[in-house]
Amino acid sequence: MRYRYDTPQHSESNGERLAALRKRRRWTQATLARETGYSLAAVRAFERGRRSLDRGSVILTFAKALGCHPTEITGQPLAPGDEASQDAAAAVSSVHRALLRHGRPARPTDDEAARVDLTGLQGRVREANRLRSSAALAGTAARLPALLRDAQVAVEVCEAGDRRVAYGLLASAYECAMQYLYTMGHSAAATLATERVLWAAEATEDPLRALAARWYQAGEFLAIGEHDDAADIIEESLKALGPAKGPEALSLLGAFHLKAALNAARAASPAVAEEHMSAATAAADQLGVDRNDFELQFGPTNAAIWSVSLPVEMGRGREAVRTAEYVTAGLPDDYPPERRSHYFIDMGRGHWYNGDRDKALAAFLEAESIAPTATRMHAGVRETVRTMIRTQRRGPVLELGIRVGAL
């Protein structure tokens, strides 16, 4: 498909939304600079789009100062522009409705109750999560509403041990819904899904399953910049895990260290971030293989990917690019597309921070080729590409800008 790019329509940038939020508070740029610790020149550059407002830690600093949610700056959820993204977004309302019905009587029909099959339901949950991690979001969207309904019915009609199994399947289905909603930019609905994951995981009476749900809970606090709360949840969970016994516990331990590293990076605590990253790498080395316990994708490959993502979060473009030279060469072709695409997004941002526009664009295009919808719906890609376009308004960068809604 060819895209016209002679007269693109304008869409708001993160900087323009930041300026509007500041004016809503009746603050001057100088006031915003004082409240956030950024220079007046930096605030002006962000608002005018001369400086890319895409780093999580920077967005969170402005959001906390202005008393708003980070998505009020990033503009999520984005309107899907292409047909595949529209298909992927088609189930958002139905999934949200299923989440709202959590805990209410399912009132299954006789046929629904008779059709409850935990083995079949397990296969359907596994397939939905496989599609999501494969970045086949339209396929995920097509399956989720009925899957959530059937898992809720199973919890209601099963008894004793089967009910605990049903709760585990419901927790996994909610996790799939949560990840899907986050990818599509619907953070409020995704937060609701996370609460449902916590509730269902506790009902399984499986300590590791319940701790895995806390990993997602920590992410909720991290996403809104409540770093102390996120750190408390992570530290409590690491303490509960203790010396990890068995590969499942070890992979969960490593995943918590990665989450702690990201939390510290966004809280401007680089030394703490590096300490947790080292602990995660040690756990991955001890594990020796990539695992997918509780859909957390932990192992040597994911730890290597994070060794690039973490410096990007801290704005260290040169370090990210240098590390990526080794990571890219060893990245398995069969690693889940969702994670591979996100890696190339981070690599693109690293090149951008390092001042290499061409390599940044090449990395974004590679991410798009792996997972088109996930890349086009990524707020950081959109904002970085928007900034790139300001000085180069023709060719592939502009075409990408149209696809991601940066214009």
Keywords:
407 residues, disordered N terminus, mainly alpha, globular
Describe this protein's structure.
The structure is a single chain. With 407 residues, this protein is mainly α. Among the domains are: 81-205, no CATH class; 207-298, no CATH class. The protein is built from 23 helices and no strands. The protein has helices at 14-24, 29-36, 40-48, 56-66, 71-74, 83-89, 92-100, 110-114, 118-133, 137-157, 160-183, 187-203, 207-223, 227-241, 247-266, 270-287, 300-313, 317-329, 337-353, 357-370, 372-376, 379-389, 396-404. α2 crosses α3, α9 (118-133) runs antiparallel to α10 (137-157) and α17 (300-313) packs antiparallel against α18 (317-329). The radius of gyration is 21 Å and the shape is globular. The chain starts with 13 loop residues before the first helix and ends with a helix. Residues 1-9 have low confidence and may be disordered.
Globally, the shape reads globular
Determine the N-to-C terminus distance. 18 Å
Low-confidence stretches: 1-9
Strand runs, count: 0
Protein name: Helix-turn-helix domain-containing protein
InterPro entries: Cro/C1-type_HTH (IPR001387), Lambda_DNA-bd_dom_sf (IPR010982)
Domain HTH cro/C1-type: 18-73
Organism: Streptomyces durbertensis
Topology:
Layout: H1 14-24, H2 29-36, H3 40-48, H4 56-66, H5 71-74, H6 83-89, H7 92-100, H8 110-114, H9 118-133, H10 137-157, H11 160-183, H12 187-203, H13 207-223, H14 227-241, H15 247-266, H16 270-287, H17 300-313, H18 317-329, H19 337-353, H20 357-370, H21 372-376, H22 379-389, H23 396-404
Helix pairs in contact: 1-3, 2-3, 6-10, 7-10, 9-10, 9-11, 10-11, 11-12, 12-13, 13-14, 13-15, 14-15, 15-16, 15-17, 16-17, 17-18, 17-19, 18-19, 19-20, 22-23
